[in-house]
Design brief:
With 506 residues, this protein is α/β, with parallel strands linked by helices. 33% of the residues lie in helices and 26% in strands. The protein is built from 18 helices and 25 strands.
């Protein structure tokens, strides 16, 4: 009998201990996105984007499974694709409001509409827009809310503060960020930790800094130099971190870009003490298993947006004196008048020494007569950005060699150029086909630094341009390609185009 009483007592004691541990243990789930660049359709990026309605369905399902959860976005979200840009970002803001985003910080791309438009846009947000290092130059007052402390259903206090990369001052057009100071993210983060740490159980930095080595301020530097941050939800460098990166006891997470993945970070706590942090990425297939049906409200909003956009796309923005057609094979094998026009527009906008575009990136031409916004957006349907970079002359030569490496076969990487004139010999060995190269009227100096205007697709190493990806410095950012072409057609019209930039040696 005594033995039975002992066993029963031991059982109840074990139950109490187990119950206590279970009550004290808690899981905080942080769902995160970054660098969506206004990709909202599951057909964007040749179907690589999972689709915003699909992603939101997954987010809502995951949040319903764990009430202690937040959805955070690390910026470069309100600008990117024509369907969003045409509304100055309001279409994307509307989708985020419907979707139930909790907070976002501002990426450099958010400033493409100009600071005044951005401020007015974010006033309509039903979520928190956080940026603790942006102040007015005139009075040092914060422009946006610096941080927010969220109280979870079980009482857990989660602090989130935002940081935007100071690189924005360099890569954005000066007029777009006029009157703003971008303060040192590291020093501001130290202030945020000092102020917020006593008030919260989990402290998160929501940053658009990235981990590129050439940048002065990165999330890695932040983690190394600022103690007390539990999690950095990052963006900007388009880095895929499948299980995150731990630096100085701070977990850094990033999903890549263009809504290819949804990030999920699970923070396990024993009482108020963090005992584990786990990061993972969920792709389109994983999201579909979680939520097989796209979110109805977001899907309906996208359908309405596309219907309303049609009215704007039909607006006439320029006149064309002649038809400039685009044949896929021709664009990928030889110089064309339209390729010259496009690259002239890039150089006109950026003031660069030269400009290039890959033939595979130009999808439509322009017909004679009225030119509408929709016509130009068909030319560049991918939402790529125009950037100005500094490159060494040897990089330009290597790029041109790659451009003609498959000639006479059609090659999407074949470059159309402005400010450049060069010859190449198809009979020569691949890698040594290019002969004389001129930048402007001067022979190329392979040791000299030149400025080049081109798309972020090539700068990211697209079409095999790894040499450009590895050896460049971004010095300017000028909006999407279709925006630049519209400006050029409105400002300069169809000027006489000088051909003879690419010469096939006989």
């Amino acid at each position: 009998m005594n033995r039975l009483k002992f066993l029963i007592g031991a059982f109840f004691l074990a139950s109490i201990i187990f119950f206590t541990v279970t009550v004290n243990a808690a899981e905080l789930v942080i769902l995160h996105t970054n660098d969506i660049h206004a990709r909202v359709l599951n057909t964007d990026d040749y179907g690589k984007s999972m689709g915003f309605a699909e992603m939101v369905a997954g987010i809502k399902k995951l949040k319903s499974q764990n009430l202690d959860s937040l959805w955070l976005d690390a910026g470069d979200t309100l600008h990117g694709m024509p369907a969003i840009n045409i509304s100055n970002g309001s279409n994307m803001l509307n989708l985020l409001n419907i979707a139930g985003l909790n907070a976002m910080t501002l990426g450099n791309q958010e400033f493409n509409y100009g600071i005044d438009t951005l401020i007015n846009l974010t006033k309509k947000a039903k979520f928190d827009v956080l940026a603790s290092n942006l102040v007015y130059r005139s009075n040092d007052k914060l422009i946006f809310k610096p941080y927010k402390i969220y109280k979870m259903p079980d009482g857990l206090r989660v602090g989130v503060f935002g940081l935007t990369t100071p690189e924005t001052q360099i890569i954005a057009r000066p007029t777009l960020v006029r009157g703003i100071n971008f303060l040192n993210p590291v020093e501001i983060a130290k202030d945020m930790v000092k102020e917020m740490r006593p008030k919260c159980d989990v402290l998160i930095a929501l940053t658009h800094l990235g981990i590129d080595e050439h940048a002065a301020f990165t999330s890695i530097r932040l983690a190394n130099e600022v103690d007390g941050i539990d999690l950095i939800v990052d963006g900007h460098s388009h880095t895929v971190l499948p299980s995150g990166l731990t630096i100085n006891n701070t977990l850094i997470v990033q999903t890549g870009w263009h809504a290819y993945n949804l990030g999920k970070t699970t923070i396990t706590l024993d009482g108020k003490k963090i005992i584990n942090k786990k990061a993972e990425l969920l792709d389109a297939d994983a999201i579909k298993k979680i939520a097989p049906t796209p979110d109805k409200n977001v899907a309906a909003a996208i359908t309405k947006m596309e219907r309303e956009n049609k009215k704007l796309l039909d607006q006439v923005i320029a006149q064309n004196d002649k038809t400039m057609s685009v044949d896929i094979t021709t664009m990928r094998t030889q110089e064309t008048e339209f390729g010259d026009l496009v690259t002239d527009a890039f150089r006109w906008k950026t003031g660069a020494d030269c400009a290039v575009i890959n033939g595979g990136g130009v999808r439509e031409g322009l017909l004679e007569g009225n030119v509408t916004k929709g016509d130009v957006m068909k030319v560049f349907p991918f939402g790529n950005q125009l950037q100005r970079v500094e490159v060494q002359g040897s990089v330009i030569r290597e790029m041109l060699e790659h451009s003609v490496s498959q000639y006479p076969d059609a090659f999407g990487a074949f470059l159309h150029v402005s400010g450049i004139k060069f010859t190449f010999s198809p009979e020569n060995t691949v890698g040594s086909r290019v002969g004389d190269i001129y930048i402007g009227n001067e022979p190329l100096n392979e040791n000299l630094i030149y400025t080049m205007a081109t798309s972020d697709f090539l700068i990211e190493g697209g079409n095999g341009y790894d040499v450009l990806k590895k050896h460049h410095l971004v010095t300017g950012q000028f909006g999407t390609l279709e925006e630049i072409l519209i400006e050029y057609l409105q400002e300069s019209g169809m000027k006489k185009i000088d051909m003879g930039r690419i010469i096939v040696a006989k």
